[in-house]
Amino acid sequence: MSDSANSDIDGVPVLRLTAPALAEILQLRQSEAAPDTLGLCVEISGTHDEAYTYDMYFQVISDSAPGDWVERLDEGLTLIVPAQSLDRLRGAVLDLSQDEDGAGMVIRNPNRPPPSPRSPAMTGPPPDLSGDVAQRLIQVLEEQINPAIAAHGGRADLVAVEEDTAYLRLSGGCAGCGLAAVTLSQGIEVAIRDGVPEIVNVVDVTDHASGSNPYYEAAKK
């Protein structure tokens, strides 16, 4: 199956999209306001278990910063990689995987972070893990997750904790975003499980359908 490739840096493609991933991204972008002005931004948000974690979101192409890598594919999608993520993403492939829970985005990256004693899933100070599970979850959200997703206007709030499941509501740039599920699985879930190991499941209860850009129904238990 052919991939959509883009120009190389030093002979190595910065990021490639497989055909299924490209089709899925283009479909998601159509549910956004002014889709032709939006590019797919892919950046590294942190590390976990000796691997990188990622954030993906739609960004107005003209808002890209100097030094960002910007490439328009023949199929009409513009890819954006922030300057600070370039070297760590070079050679990666964005694919659409299928599992028992349905389709999801996956990034296959040949690069690995340097080993360290602590590998937080998202940038920010280590959370204070004192107190009950709900309090620790709130601390992880406020100290690690929200500072990371605030860069594109997003926020995550804890709604409830039931046994080993945390229920979150996404707002701001994440509410109604076609890539909210990717943000949840690639970054937020990893950070929560890393900081609060009692939590096994993270459920998004955001009513994305009530926003201007709905893409899926609120998750159910």
Could you describe the 3D structure shown?
With 221 residues, this protein is of the alpha/beta class. The chain has two domains: 3-108, Hypothetical Protein Aq_1857, Chain: A; 133-210, GMP Synthetase, Chain A, domain 3 (2-Layer Sandwich). It has helices at residues 19-29, 86-89, 133-149, 180-195, and strands at residues 3-4, 8-9, 12-13, 15-18, 38-48, 51-60, 69-72, 78-81, 92-99, 102-108, 154-162, 165-172, 201-204. A four-stranded mixed beta sheet has the order 1-4-9-10. The protein has a four-stranded mixed beta sheet with strand order 6-5-8-7. A hairpin with a 2-residue loop joins strand 5 and strand 6 (51-60). The longest helix has 17 residues, at 133-149.
Offer a concise description of the structure.
This protein is α/β, with parallel strands linked by helices. The chain is built from four helices and 13 strands.
